[in-house]
Amino acid sequence: MKTKTRYGHFGNLSANYAQARQGFPAEVFDLLWSKLNMPRPKILDVGCGTGISTRQLTQRGANVIGVDRDQDMLKRAKENQEPSINYISAAVTDLPFEDESFDAVCAFSAFHWFANNKALGEIYRVLKPQGAFFIVNKVDDGDFKTGYRMVMAPFIEGHMPDPTQKYQWSDLLAKNHFGDIETKYFPAIEKFTFENAIAYLQSISLWNLVSDSRKTEALKAMTDFCLSKRDSEGFINRALQIQAVLATK
Description:
Blueprint: H1 14-20, H2 26-36, E1 42-46, H3 52-59, E2 63-68, H4 71-79, E3 86-89, E4 102-108, H5 117-126, E5 127-140, H6 144-152, H7 169-175, E6 179-192, H8 194-201, H9 215-228, E7 236-248
Parallel strand pairs: 1-2, 1-4, 2-3, 4-5
Antiparallel strand pairs: 5-7, 6-7
């Protein structure tokens, strides 16, 4: 099967994704566990990618199934697979599970790719009564994202998409019968080595919009950008607000 390389697909970027993408702070999982209040919840991690959040959920004691449509991302996830994790290739709009199967469904840095009524209907269906839907996003709180988008803009023809701007999560959740919606923010800083910062920029979906003929030139521009962002210890810092949205079926 040919790997898709268009915007919104990550399979061809999976090596850089696995190298450079970072996990989520403990406070995020504390919030979810305060809702679940059980020792070994059954959790579905949708849009699990290379399994970063899936492994963190498992380390908290959950019984986790990770779902992603991209076989290449799942292949990377299975390279670091923990015994209690099961990975399944499926679309969020057509989940292969029985009704009321999970105590929680989670979407870490993924909900913007399937923020639609059909996907939410499926998530609602597989949740147990009073089950939790947990959405976590990394919201840039500094100039890192605006900086790299400016650097990449000359190498991308036409409009530069930003999927995180496409939806209003509160309206979508309410429309799809979720209640008790609460949002919390947790400040965080991701620190990248120079090499991992370059890998990170080549793991974002915008990289697929740079034509092969211009990738060398674009990589040079991104290298200059990362060099300019190094702190006194040589790290590149990405300031974040971790947005955690918790809703109940």
